[in-house]
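Q: I'm building a small set of examples for a reading group on sequence design. Run inverse folding on the following structure and report the sequence directly after it, with nothing in between.
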């Protein structure tokens, strides 16, 4: 696009929270646009979603605003500036402002496909009725499920006060989970809600993902990785949202009219983690075996002790697990152990000896040999390439 003017550097306020993975990716998209088409003089500060707009904004004579608007008050202040502005959060606070955001209808379809590929026949959705984009995501999911002739269970609306009470809210989730037919695939409208569901499953003694599989939305790394088990989630394309929004604002600041005042960016797909990484197991013996392995593999579980607990012969269990999972009992035990090994290598500084002891391996030598054979690298090499750098946080502020 040919530039029509650059008599001064445009002054742009970025009212975007910096506390989340998605919004940091969004800002990276804006930065890429500036690297190719800028420069802009930008105002950017560390912000939370509910941060107040800066006081000077009310009387600012800048050139444009990129905003993720949380309140009607903030929206009014932006409107009164009379400046070109692009909304990046939701259309209901944006008024007549152009909008760039995620395609919530496509998000619902992605989650539906994820569960169908894994053989689920029962479905549910969990959302709060406070945000329209939550409602859009869930409605898309429900529509897709109903189009297949299935039913999607929804958590009944609660007294608004109960959502503010953590224990009451979790008790209500537990009761709902226990009533659902299983195995069931549940779509949580956000990662925060997905983490709540995982906690409720733990309280209820419901196995994840053998009985309940959960997929969240946004792929917020902190929440997804902190959860137990780690949460699968729809990964938004924040970078492309930021890139498109910056281009849209640049055109508005040049006085151009926009033929399309709403741009919906499709999500990248479902990032699969342990909360939904299994296929539905219809064989009850195999389902019970899979749960026992997941819960006890790191405690020295053997195929012999597994067969004894299940009161099944080794040949029977081997045959039925291979038919259902395409893995033998021994292979499944090792798979779960190595998953735990990788988690400890990524998230801790434990020695290989300590990791071997915690994950059911006879000794560190056997762990190192088996790990290299399976992954093609030593545990130390895996840790070096997968553990976040520790040097960045050591300097003072």
């Amino acid at each position: 696009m040919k530039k029509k003017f650059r008599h001064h550097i445009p002054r742009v306020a970025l009212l975007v929270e910096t506390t989340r993975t998605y919004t940091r990716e969004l800002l990276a998209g804006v930065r890429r646009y500036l690297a190719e088409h800028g420069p802009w003089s930008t105002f950017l500060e560390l912000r939370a979603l509910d941060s107040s707009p800066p006081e000077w904004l009310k009387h600012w004579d800048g050139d444009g605003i990129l905003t993720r608007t949380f309140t009607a008050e903030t929206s009014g202040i932006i409107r009164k500036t009379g400046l070109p502005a692009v909304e990046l959060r939701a259309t209901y606070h944006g008024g007549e402002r152009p909008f760039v955001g995620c395609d919530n209808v496509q998000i619902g379809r992605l989650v539906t496909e994820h569960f169908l590929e894994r053989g689920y026949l029962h479905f549910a959705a969990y959302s709060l009725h406070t945000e329209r984009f939550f409602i859009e995501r869930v409605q898309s999911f429900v529509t897709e499920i109903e189009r297949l002739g299935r039913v999607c269970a929804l958590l009944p609306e609660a007294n608004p006060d109960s959502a503010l009470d953590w224990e009451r809210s979790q008790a209500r989730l537990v009761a709902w989970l226990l009533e659902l037919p299983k195995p069931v695939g549940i779509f949580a409208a956000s990662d925060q809600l997905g983490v709540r569901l995982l906690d409720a499953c733990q309280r209820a003694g419901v196995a994840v993902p053998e009985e309940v599989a959960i997929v969240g939305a946004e792929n917020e790394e902190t929440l997804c990785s902190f959860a137990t088990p780690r949460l699968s989630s729809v990964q938004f394309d924040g970078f492309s949202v930021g890139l498109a929004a910056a281009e849209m604002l640049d055109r508005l600041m040049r006085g151009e009219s926009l033929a399309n005042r709403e741009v919906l960016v499709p999500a990248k797909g479902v990032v699969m983690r342990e909360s939904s990484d299994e296929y539905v197991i219809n064989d009850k013996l195999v389902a019970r075996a899979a749960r026992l392995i997941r819960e006890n593999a790191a405690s020295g579980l053997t195929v012999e002790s597994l067969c004894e607990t299940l009161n099944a012969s080794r040949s029977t269990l081997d045959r039925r697990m291979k038919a259902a999972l395409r893995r033998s009992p021994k292979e499944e035990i090792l798979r779960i152990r190595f998953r735990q090994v990788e988690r400890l290598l990524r998230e801790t500084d434990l020695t290989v000896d300590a990791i071997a002891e915690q994950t059911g391996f006879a000794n560190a030598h056997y762990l190192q040999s088996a790990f290299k054979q399976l992954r093609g690298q030593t545990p130390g090499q895996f840790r070096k390439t997968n553990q976040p750098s520790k040097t960045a946080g050591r300097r003072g502020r």
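Confidence is low (pLDDT under 50) at residues 1-6, 390-397.
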